[in-house]
Amino acid sequence: MDTVEDTHKEAALGYILDAWEEAIYDGIEPEMMANAALFAALSDLITIYGEDAVAKMAGGLARRINHGEFTLRRTTQ
């Protein structure tokens, strides 16, 4: 059963994806959107949790990236 938090997370992602698609349609490059999204996300997280907490969280991203947690399309060789 979905919690209210799960529902809000899904809704938030939907809003971001809708805005992303609209920007791409308007000619904004995906890498520009990605950089802007990361900046906005990190800025808000720092405002809420502080620089030290966000730096610690961001430090763990390399491991998660290397383990494919954010990879949508995998290539096999």
The overall number of domains is 1
Termini gap? 38 Å
Helix content: over 70%
Spans of 5+ residues with little confidence (pLDDT < 50)?
Answer: none
**Mean pLDDT value:** 92
Number of strands: 0
Key traits:
77 residues; globular; 74% helix
Descriptive overview:
By secondary structure, the protein is an all-alpha fold. It has one domain. It is 74% helix and 0% strand. Helix 2 crosses helix 3. The longest helix is centred in the first third of the chain and has 22 residues. The radius of gyration is 15 Å and the shape is globular. The mean pLDDT is 92.
Could you provide a short overview of the structure?
With 77 residues, the chain is mostly helical. Helix content is 74%, strand content 0%. Helix 2 crosses helix 3 (51-59).
List the helices and strands and how they pair.
Elements lengths: L3 H22 L4 H20 L1 H9 L1 H6 L11
Helix pairs in contact: 2-3
